[in-house]
């Protein structure tokens, strides 16, 4: 993929404008050198050239003012392009994970932390590539013009200015991978230190009560020392490299003096030429750094786009840069509401031969059948690792299935994620997640419905009393990941979030594990009152007792199914589960 | 008994002063390195100042058609000063970063130790994430500040001072002009930077909000998707992006102004110096070489000023960080060793007694109200009650993780407040629902980093909890690393590891806090067996919210709203149909 044109073309006019501003600035800088040359030549010439020298200086002043204004304009305008590119790509990524068809589980990185760094750092890397390219184009423009001027004055000395630059370019290229290795080592050691701090404070209770605080600190000291060594080395490596780049203007000036000695005595090389050479040499000294940076950023960007591609459907890097809108004005149009289609109202859900296996392990469900009608309660039970959660997640399309058919009202579905979602189906996972927004936003998540239906959802989810006790009511900000609520409240908020969507089928994964007995009892009572069909994974007796039918899973296969008393009678495995609690 | 939180205002001390006090005391061991650092810094700043002097003499010689040899020598000298100065810069940076890291590491270990020893009321208010920020984030800022302050601010100030003095020596008027230029440049830079700082913070905050939200959405991605809320959340993303854009643009308006304004000041300053120079040249006061010298010096003052002003900003940030660290170091634990300690019985089970105990967290209403309870040595007590009834708090009072406001807790007949904390730690153990594993070996996870425990005891403990087979499967035995690239454990196995820790410690009193609530029936059965073995011959409090967990305890206590409403032998309570416990057993599926 030709990344640079693709990235530059997004909001391309803004990018072009930035490029023009930058180039204009470099041209003014070039002109400054020429003016200074004349100023010093006139000053050396003596009377009456002093006055020309002074009037040239009078021209130089406004030129510098214009230059400063151009720089300022470019900086102020820059976010209009850079933030647009970032917003565009990030919206594409988020839409892939939250909206695009097909199971998202294969697209999500292993940890959320890793996913965030994709969203932040990889997208940043993509934007930086054209950003640096603009700077390089301007600087190359300056380099061509200034080398041409210097060459006309003295070819040998131009080489003295240019060759060290090439040397620095090569040296930095060679050294940069070494430096990256040092910095990687430092980051790893840093992560070990912060990780251990986190563990010590998360485990403060066990360390304290076991009198192990001092011993843990001893371990901490070792990790600290290792990190310090790595950090000092990384710093040294970086300094050595920037010194190499930094020597060049001083070094170049020294070389110019050495080579200019005889020419200056013979007046073939003037004081003005000296001023011009040193000024241009100083400006050019950042060029190798910039070129190195461009090459580095090009590599980073192509790695980043590959990595980001893995977040997209079919792992397609092209999709990362698919055309899409961005709303820097801050008024994105509202999402279209989900329409309730009469022919999609639940009559039957039929699953045949469903197989869904984790790619990494062998766990999951195999060859599973189930059937559910309006208003029924079907409970899937079995020991941990039997495949209950995988079954439910495959049904709502969160993980892929390797085989089997899912029929909704008799119609076979390729992607259950398109039909087994609100308003037909709502799903409450095992460990529901909230975001730090207000409680109402957390429950609605953009779902438009009258306040009365929100109230009845809260009522049924056994959350009304809790909300009543909160001083800010539904406006209560629930804290990051719902941390200001208790575990039971988070779970009931998630149930309310599902119920407000008024689904025909509710899929509940072990939701009562954080609820106490009486609350759980009232919840099931209320759910029964709504007439919603329920598919629940649970090993709680209160749930099993209410089931119209139970499916017992063991190692991913259905080993028995039927009503509670039938199973107690017929299945020894079920009796074991029922008796152990 | 409430404790001040870290957020207490610092008072109106100048920014940075706190940082220096905190650091100065801990820099002492670095004396000799600091002396070398000063020398390196002097070399790296003094040598570049010679550059323009050499150039000026070179130009004058050339114009006077002086000897070529001398000119060449001047050029070589120029080269040598440049190379040496750069080498000195690298050395000083190396020395400075070493000093900075060692100093902040000492402070980091001190802060971590201090914070870990604070009482649980403190830890209840501060998350591990926050503590990482205090112990590492803030001190990381200090380390950068120390090293870059020395290099940039001190080094920059030396260059600046040297340049000004040298120009004053050339001509008083031009010296005055340069001094004015520096003053105006620095002044405007400081003013507009102060203006810009708020916008920079706002821009960083907007970006932090954007990525914080993204993190939450990703965390909740399945919930969002399965609730058909994807498009709504993408719309929210666009809103956050727009917020960040507005903040970025406002920041660029001011931040850009700072940069271009500085450029402008020094560009115009150079023009002014040259104009003055040419005027003096016309008078015949100075030579062309001196004009070149003035030009070069005018260009040398810009970057030190920028560096110093940037440092001022860093210094302020570091001052804030140091303030937070200093406040943390001022925190005092309310749980302290007594001045004269009584010893707990050294071996055997400990008896436990609550005498009319009342306890509240800070200024909140009491969560334990007038609880009196006797538990003979070697007996086990099951605590039941709804969430929030005070079970956990009561059990933690027994370990002196808190002190009661009224009444007393006695361990082995000794008031817990009269016993040494080490002594209590040695004789008691706590097992919680959340098992914290460390990125360390299996052995260290069991012994909690105690090298004195020999391997046979560790193996024995693992056998006792039923992890013997598991250990034999470990590739490196007891040295196998857990977590962080090591072996992952199931929730049940983690619980068993926690029990093995207790077996190794062989305590006289154990508190088991809801150890089985997240387990499936089969893992729970395995845990039950290990627990029974562990509790044999020891005093214990067992908290469980499933009544079946309490099948083997000797006594049962029922808590309601912090009041011990019922307490007696389990068998008696079961036999009494009117008892709360018996009613609970009937009501719940047992």
Cα-atom Rg of chain B, whole angstroms?
Answer: 35 Å
- The whole-number mean of residue pLDDT values of chain B reads 86
Number of helices of chain B: 19
* Strand arrangement, major sheet of chain A: 6-7-8-3-9-10
What percent of the residues of chain A sit in helical stretches (DSSP H or I)?
55-70%
What series of H and E elements makes up the topology of chain B?
Answer: HHHHHHHHHHEEEHEEHEHHHHEHEEEHH
Structural class of chain B: alpha/beta
Structural class of chain A: alpha/beta
Average of per-residue pLDDT values of chain A: 90
Q: Determine the N-to-C terminus distance of chain B.
A: 41 Å
Q: Segments of chain B where pLDDT lies below 50 for 5+ residues?
A: 1-15
Number of strands of chain A: 10
Strand order of the largest sheet of chain B: 6-7-8-3-9-10
State Rg of chain A: 34 Å
Description:
- The complex is a heterodimer of chains A (581) and B (590).
- Chain A has 581 residues and is of the alpha/beta class.
- Helix content of chain A is 62%, strand content 10%.
- Chain A contains 19 helices and ten strands.
- Chain A has helices at 3-9, 12-45, 49-98, 112-153, 155-202, 204-209, 213-265, 271-284, 287-309, 317-320, 388-395, 439-444, 451-460, 464-469, 487-499, 517-530, 541-546, 564-570, 572-579; strands at 348-357, 364-373, 377-381, 403-408, 411-413, 425-428, 505-509, 533-537, 549-554, 557-562.
- Chain A has a six-stranded mixed sheet with strand order 6-7-8-3-9-10, with helices on both faces. A four-stranded antiparallel sheet of chain A has the order 2-1-4-5, covered by helices on one side.
- Chain A is elongated.
- Chain A starts with a helix and ends with a helix.
- With 590 residues, chain B is an alpha/beta fold.
- Chain B is built from 19 helices and ten strands.
- Chain B has helices spanning 17-27, 31-63, 68-117, 120-125, 128-170, 172-219, 221-226, 230-283, 288-300, 302-330, 391-398, 421-427, 442-447, 455-464, 468-473, 491-505, 521-535, 570-575, 580-587; strands at 352-359, 368-375, 380-384, 406-411, 414-415, 428-431, 509-513, 539-543, 555-560, 563-569.
- Chain B has a six-stranded mixed sheet with strand order 6-7-8-3-9-10, sandwiched between helices. Chain B has a four-stranded antiparallel sheet with strand order 2-1-4-5, covered by helices on one side.
- In chain B, helix 2 runs parallel beside helix 5 (128-170), helix 5 runs antiparallel to helix 10 and helix 16 (491-505) runs parallel beside helix 17.
- The longest helix of chain B is centred in the middle third of the chain and has 54 residues, at 230-283.
- The radius of gyration of chain B is 35 Å and the shape is elongated.
- The chains are: A alpha/beta (581), B alpha/beta (590).
